[in-house]
Design brief:
- This protein is an alpha+beta fold.
- The protein is built from 31 helices and 33 strands.
- A 7-stranded mixed beta sheet has the order 6-5-4-1-3-2-12, with helices on both faces.
- The chain is extended.
């Protein structure tokens, strides 16, 4: 039984149960349509529509991303917030997280490597409005810090509104000081309230990080790690303004002005300044004007591309997924104390913490300490090293280089130049010497210091660094340029036979050019070149000592063979030949190389071997402005066959001949042809027979017909992309074309054509910089170099759409100075506000309207339309209220729009003739009346009229007609429009030139000047308010003539009766009562008086009771109203919850399950 084998179970393959088994399990796998089907069709429709709308909101306008993919510039991360919120602590924590280095003092931009393809530049924004404006224009990512224990402050809202005007970058909120909130429920509600307010300002779902507290001077590593990971993977969308302007955030500044010039001018001269930084935006050309916010417009003296101080790791060194620890240590912060080295405006400071002991092994040494120790270890100068070395200028030189002090006499030079003139040439030794000299010169050339030429005597040039490739030169001392031999020189087998030592190259001003020996022999064959020196005897001696024939012209033959080999193998770099070469077009066409000896004298400082005189004489040359024609070329035009072949190419050709025959006729002559009308090109196969050519033409026609058929009958909707994808594909294709155009071109030639590309580290030299910028330099304030487009360099009148900010309390008034932040510039100008009056005229407004846009016209630098801006009344820190006064966008830069102002001219009539009146006090002369003839006028009572003609006397009066008779008391006015223009006032904000950067003041209002100076406002007696006394107007009674009354009907006749002057009988009679009647009347009067007094007392008591009742009822009504109000609130609260739940259900959110 133990060895029994069991057969494996085999499921049935046939039968009734075979098809049923496994059906349930198969149905469970996969997507079940019924499980997620909506209950109602209306809800399904809403859900589908919402999904489509959500997909559409993700789309945006496609923009060209000009950031290079290979070496992108570092991402600028700005840390912004009010003072005391923890910006510096966050900056130090992030730098320590990325670079493993501790900053003791953070100043200026700090660049670190965050990944294999990304670098970050951190910069802290201080609590200054100018700095916030500048940072908002260049920052790619903003870390907005908020004090959770205090809440949002005014500076945060001001910065967010500045960002909205200048292109909104990515913003991440960071809550700090959470450790000050001890109660957990309060902390939770505070986080919720701040998050809701932050989402209101940015967008729903904006990222918000929480920093709990400070440990050991920095934030917790876990929280910083989460923040840094989120920063490292963020994607940035290009902004319109930055995508069209080059700009640079300077991380280092140097003053190159000579110290003697500064001393002579007592520091008040203009400076020559260099700024260093990564180029961003678009390409920057040297001809581009730049603007430094806070300083002004500048012209670039030179741009130099430097090595990247914080390079990205290359693919060879970084084969792992994570960044190596060595690359993490790389940090570039010249203005901070990284590594103990800090770059100031004109010096380098090396800070050593604690006690420094040279030779201590256990103490780590910083970068600055290592630099000082290397300088201390140098025990010899460069001259001593050269004198001890075995450096030879050429392989044929037999004497080593020596160094002579600049104050050596000329006699010593002449003696030294004759040493070693009789030594022979040794080929093997020369080769070894040239290799040794090459290596040693390369090593020593790195340590050569630049010496200012102005500080050296005029007769000595001294040793200084080269600005170009070194070319060999020879001394011609002892040879006169005015000899009969035309500047020739004797033949020499070696360089040393002509005499002269290498020390003479310190005084190259007196040297003449000299060429190689092999080149002289070629010139002797040329004719007008260098002639042989000396008489016949010397020529015989030269023939006796001449080398063998196979040794002659060896260098020239090798050179010719090498050049011919290069022409065949190498493709010409036309970009470098055209833009970065000093050769003429004829020399380029002839194939001359740029590094070959030229045929014209060049600067003696840069060349060593100077070219000889040209071997061709141009004394008898013809006029080169006209083409030189040879008789052989003219005889070609006498050939009738060639003329007939060209006849069809002209307009006067035979129109009956088909175009194809003309093409074939041209092709038969040889050459390519392009039909400019149809755009088709015809290329001639040179080695093909007519049958092959005809077959190729037929195949091309069939292919074109097939393509046309496919386009006509295929369904275009199958492969058609939507608008968004089509635009993105078009932008990508154009980018690929632009990049492919410059493939294979060196960086220098490419920079000459398209400018310096973004992402490189450049050095920009600026001249005529105000001295206050260097004297008052503060690394805590950013320096931005913004490139200007050609249109932005000029000034003019701009028209913008502007709106007063809803948080700014004061109303903006026309002709009040306003500070604009437009483009790179910050300037003060005087705007005029206007409104479009029914598309008829632009009517001036005295004040900006409430809660609506208006137009603003002002004078300033031209900016492109759709450029956003923000305006301020003051930039001082002392302002407690919201400082952003207005925001807007530029509409037009055209001056054709006129702004008009309402003008009312008033006058009074002095003579009235029915509907005609003579008016005075409106004009001053007949000429003014003539300008307004036919103008509409009107009285205050509403009677309309028209100006007719001026009267001779008195001056300025005129005749006018009205639609009704006017009165002498009427005031007549004329409504006109007066054209006005903004004032030409432009005052740039030069905050970086001040010692206190936040105390810049521009034009002030009159009231502000009086308040600052303590001057009382002058009072005008006529301006005082006085009580107005208006006498009642008395109208005359209506008088109707008796004749008219007689003719009127009775109903229209006046029914006025005179009051009787005499008393009537009833008034005249006297009533005499009896004594009984008198007593009865007296009794009745007494009773009425008592009754009246009783009724009065009763009403008073009743009013008292009613007053008490009214108070009681009012109190009850108040209590009832409160109860009704609470009841309504509860009802609305329940209704709101219900609607919220319904909305969540509509959005597809699942309800929470009830607990069973």
């Amino acid at each position: 039984m133990e060895n029994q084998t069991h057969k494996p179970h085999r499921p049935g393959q046939s039968g009734s149960k075979a098809g049923k088994k496994g059906k349930g399990k198969q149905q469970q796998s996969g997507f079940n349509e019924k499980a997620f089907a909506p209950k109602s069709g209306r809800r399904a429709d809403r859900q589908g529509r919402r999904n489509v709308e959500r997909d559409q909101t993700r789309l945006h306008v496609p923009l060209v991303d000009r950031t290079p993919d290979d070496i992108p510039p570092p991402v600028i991360v700005a840390i912004v917030g009010p003072p005391g919120v923890g910006k510096t602590t966050l900056l130090k924590s992030l730098v320590r997280r990325y670079s493993k280095q501790i900053l003791h003092e953070a100043k200026g931009p700090i660049t670190v490597v965050s990944g294999k393809k990304r670098r970050l530049t951190f910069i802290e924004c201080n609590n200054d409005l100018n700095s916030m404006i500048d940072i908002g224009k260049v920052a790619d990512l903003v870390l907005l810090m908020i004090d959770a224990s205090y809440g949002f402050e005014m500076e945060s809202f001001e910065f967010l509104n500045i960002l909205q005007s200048h292109g909104f970058p990515k913003v991440i909120g960071v809550l700090s000081h959470l450790d000050l909130i001890k109660k957990q429920s309060t902390l939770k509600s505070t986080k919720k309230a701040l998050k809701k307010r932050f989402w209101t300002e940015i967008y729903q779902g904006a990222k918000l990080f929480y920093l709990s507290g400070v440990l050991n001077g920095r934030y917790p590593d876990t929280e910083i790690l989460n923040l840094s990971r989120f920063i490292s993977v963020m994607k940035f969308r290009p902004l319109v303004f930055r995508n069209s302007h080059p700009y640079l955030l300077a991380d280092r500044i140097e003053d190159l002005t000579p110290r003697e010039t500064i001393r002579a001018s007592k520091g008040s001269c203009d400076r020559t300044v260099t700024l260093y930084g990564y180029l961003r935006g678009t390409n920057l050309r040297q001809s581009t004007k730049v603007h430094i916010p806070g300083v002004g417009d500048m012209e670039i003296a030179s741009i130099t591309m430097l090595g990247d101080p914080c390079p990205l790791p290359d693919a060879d060194s970084e084969k792992r997924r994570k960044l190596s620890e060595k690359k993490k240590l790389l940090v570039h912060a010249p203005m901070s104390d990284v590594g103990g080295v800090m770059y100031d405006k004109d010096s380098v400071w090396i800070n050593v913490s604690g006690n420094f002991t040279r030779g201590a092994v256990d103490i780590p040494q910083g970068e600055g300490e290592q630099m000082v120790m290397n300088l201390q270890d140098v025990d010899a100068t460069l001259a001593d090293g050269v004198s001890r070395s075995q450096i030879r200028l050429l392989g044929s030189s037999s004497k080593n280089l020596t160094v002579i002090a600049p104050d050596a006499s000329h006699e010593d030079e002449s003696d030294a130049s004759e040493v070693g003139s009789e030594e022979e040439y040794d080929g093997d030794e020369g080769d070894e010497g040239s290799e040794a000299s090459r290596g040693e010169v390369e090593d020593d050339s790195e340590d050569v210091d630049d010496v200012d030429e102005d500080d050296m005597p005029t007769t000595f040039r001294g040793d200084y660094g080269r600005t170009s490739l070194r070319k060999v030169t020879r001394s011609m001392k002892g040879f006169s340029g005015d000899d009969d031999n035309g500047g020739a020189f004797p033949f020499a087998d070696s360089d040393s036979e002509l005499g002269g030592s290498d020390d003479e190259w310190e005084h190259r001003d007196n040297f003449l050019p000299l060429t190689l020996d092999d080149e002289e022999s070629d010139e002797d064959d040329g004719g007008d070149g260098v002639e042989e020196e000396g008489d016949g005897d010397e020529g015989e001696d030269e023939d006796d000592n001449a080398p063998p024939a196979w040794k002659r012209d060896l260098s020239e033959k090798a050179k010719a063979a090498f050049m011919e080999h290069n022409r065949r193998r190498r493709r010409k770099d036309w970009m470098s030949l055209i833009y970065s070469s000093s050769l003429t077009p004829d020399q380029i066409i002839s194939g001359k190389e740029a590094d070959a000896p030229d045929d014209a004298f060049t600067d003696f400082d840069d060349d060593f071997f100077h070219p000889r005189e040209t071997a061709q004489s141009y004394d008898d040359d013809l006029d080169m402005t006209k083409e030189i024609l040879s008789p052989q070329d003219l005889q070609e035009w006498e050939n009738e066959e060639m003329l007939e072949s060209l006849r069809s190419m002209f307009i006067t050709a035979n129109p009956s001949a088909p175009a194809g025959e003309e093409v074939e006729q041209y092709v038969s002559e040889g050459g390519d042809f392009e039909d400019l009308e149809t755009g088709e090109s015809y290329k001639t196969p040179q080695c093909e027979d007519p049958e092959t050519a005809r077959a190729a033409t037929l195949a091309a026609k069939k292919e074109a017909l097939k393509r046309k058929f496919d386009e006509e009958y295929d369904d275009p909707e199958d492969e058609k992309m939507d608008f968004y994808d089509e635009k993105k594909d078009e932008i990508n294709r154009q980018l690929q074309l632009n990049r492919a155009e410059f493939v294979g071109i060196d960086a220098e030639a490419r920079a000459l054509v398209e400018g310096h590309r973004p992402g490189i580290y450049v050095r920009i030299e600026l001249s005529c910089v105000p001295c206050e910028m260097i004297e008052n330099f503060d690394p805590h304030y950013p320096i931005i170099v913004g490139g200007l487009l050609p249109a932005e360099e000029r000034f003019g009148y701009l028209q913008a759409r502007i709106k007063r900010h809803r948080w700014f309390t004061r109303t903006l008034k026309t002709n009040d100075p306003l500070i604009f932040s437009l483009g790179w510039r910050r300037f003060q100008t005087i705007p005029i506000y206007s409104l479009d009056d029914h598309s008829i005229r632009m009517r001036m407004l005295k004040y900006t309207p409430e809660h609506m846009h208006c137009y603003a016209s002002f004078y300033g630098p031209v900016a492109l339309p759709n450029t956003g801006f923000c305006a301020f009344n003051s930039l001082n820190e002392g302002t407690a209220a919201f400082r952003v006064s207005a925001t807007g966008v530029v509409l037009d830069i055209d001056r054709s729009t006129k702004i008009v102002k309402k003008l009312k001219l008033t006058g009074v009539p002095f003579k009235i003739f029915k509907n005609t009146a003579f008016v005075k006090d409106m004009f001053n002369s007949a000429l003014e009346v003539a300008k307004f003839e036919g103008a509409n006028i009107r009285t205050v009572s509403g009677i309309r009229g028209q100006v007719k003609k001026a009267l001779s006397k008195p001056e300025g009066t005129f005749r006018a007609t009205f639609e009704d008779k006017v009165l002498m008391s009427d005031i007549i006015f004329l409504r006109a429009w007066y054209s006005i223009q903004p004032r030409k006032f432009y005052n740039p904000v030069t905050s970086l030139l001040l010692s206190d950067k936040s105390r810049w003041t521009g034009m002030r209002l009159t009231g502000q000047v009086r308040r600052d100076e303590g001057i009382k406002t002058p009072l005008n007696n006529n301006s005082h308010y006085k009580p107005i006394e208006r006498l009642p107007r008395r109208f005359n009674p209506l008088k109707i003539p008796k004749k008219l009354q007689a003719s009127l009907p009775y109903a229209s006749k006046p029914k006025l009766m005179k009051a009787q002057s005499n008393k009537t009988y009833m008034q005249q009679r006297a009533v005499v009562m009896e004594p009984e009647e008198r007593k009865a009347i007296a009794l009745l009067q007494q009773i009425r008086a008592l009754r009246k007094d009783q009724v009065t007392r009763r009403k008073e008591k009743q009013n008292e009771r009613k007053e008490v009742h009214r108070k009681k009822v009012a109190k009850e009504e108040a209590l009832k109203g409160e109860k009704e109000k609470e009841k309504r609130k509860e009802i609305m609260r329940v209704a709101g919850r219900k609607s919220k739940r319904e909305a969540e259900v509509d959005e597809g959110k699942s309800r929470k399950r009830r607990k069973m």
